[in-house]
Design brief:
By secondary structure, the chain is of the alpha/beta class. The protein is built from twelve helices and 14 strands. It has a single domain (6-136, 170-311), classed as CofD-like domains (Rossmann fold). Helices cover 37% and strands 18% of the residues. Strands 5-2-1-9-10-13-14 form a seven-stranded parallel beta sheet, sandwiched between helices. α1 packs parallel to α2 (50-60) and α1 (13-25) crosses α12 (299-311). The structure holds guanosine-5'-diphosphate.
């Protein structure tokens, strides 16, 4: 049974960078990573879990280094052939990646829980941290846009985040339950810290927090909850975080990120790690703030951000 010291709430590419830094900074078994499954979808008859796979491939050291998702050593024979037959090739599925989706889908359709399937993959890939889907139920992020309501991957991959977003829904979330493994991790007697990755607050973290009971259970642990800002200045390192925040009437920047968490999930965040260049914003953030260079390009950057998150002193913790 896993008794983590640190729990990370995480999305895909941005979150996986910190997941890797923490995984390599902590002794084996000390980290549990709770991953967003709101991006999961059915495609070509397969169950695809993009954020879980990004975290898995990253920690296993097999991720495509430039993309940050998919496999490094990959071929696309299936996708090329599919395109020749007139099939949908907008979602890039490599041959090795496809094998994982096939095996997961086989097990999922015969009733195995996503948590068990993921745990087996973690062990096959030799990963030492626990990777836990936020839920074994289906939650699907959908976006109301100027072009109508879009499924997540339709918006994110096929339309490259171009449509203007008016509202975001996490369909199924209110009927979903936290996975039992997520709950067990939160009751770890060794738990010292919960970290919110520099993932998209609206598309990667909010789906996790939208499951009933999650924010209460996080608070009940009594350990400090530290969020890493996913923006540097008013810009995302990658992806639509800043664009989405603006479209939804928020201020794109670290203060806007803090305000989003504080308004939607009151008293959840105890501390925030922001980029050094945003230091002047610290007084406008209503929690403990620390800064470092949060741009994670190299392995050393990932380790530095991980270290800052682990060392950030949150005076007194929670009562
Ligand atoms: P996705 O599901 O693949 O979009 O990935 P996430 O939601 O986990 O991460 C997207 C967020 O990660 C964006 O807001 C990026 O700005 C942020 N991000 C990516 N790389 C970095 C980095 O090196 N440093 C920081 N601070 N944020 C990053």
């Amino acid at each position: 049974m896993s008794t983590p010291r640190v729990i990370l709430l995480c999305g895909g590419v941005g979150g996986a960078k910190l997941a890797l830094g923490l995984d390599r900074s902590l002794p084996s078994g000390d980290l549990a990573i709770v991953v967003n499954t709101g991006d999961d979808f059915d495609h070509l008859g397969l169950r695809i879990c993009p954020d879980l796979d990004t975290v898995l491939y990253t920690l296993a050291g097999v991720v495509h280094p430039e993309q940050g998702w998919g496999r490094a050593d990959e071929t696309f024979a299936m996708l090329d052939e599919l395109a020749r037959r007139g099939g949908p090739d907008w979602f890039r599925l490599g041959d090795r990646d496809l094998a994982l989706h096939l095996q997961r889908s086989l097990r999922w359709r015969r009733g195995d829980r996503l948590t068990e399937i993921t745990a087996d993959l973690v062990s096959q890939f030799g990963v030492h941290s626990a990777i836990l889907p936020m839920t074994d139920d289906i939650v699907a992020t959908r976006l109301d846009t100027a072009e109508g309501t879009l499924d997540f991957q339709d918006y994110f991959v096929r339309r490259r985040c171009a449509p203007v977003v008016r509202e975001i829904h996490y369909d199924g979330a209110t009927a979903a339950s936290m996975s039992p493994a997520f709950l067990r991790a939160l009751s770890s007697p060794r738990l010292e810290r919960i970290v919110i990755a520099p993932s998209n607050p609206l598309l990667s973290i909010a789906p996790i927090l939208s499951i009933p009971g999650v924010s209460d259970q996080l608070r009940k642990t009594g350990v400090p909850i530290v969020a890493v800002a996913p923006l540097i200045g008013d810009r995302a390192v990658k992806g639509p975080t800043a664009k989405l925040m603006q479209e939804l009437g928020m201020r794109a920047g670290v203060v806007g990120v803090y305000d989003f968490y504080a308004e939607r999930y009151p008293a959840l965040i105890d501390a925030m790690l922001i980029d050094r260049s945003d230091g002047h914003e610290a007084t406008a953030i209503g929690c403990v703030v620390a800064s470092t260079d949060t741009l994670m390009q190299t392995m050393d950057d990932r380790l530095r951000v991980a270290q800052s998150v682990l060392e950030l002193s949150v005076k007194g913790g929670r009562p």
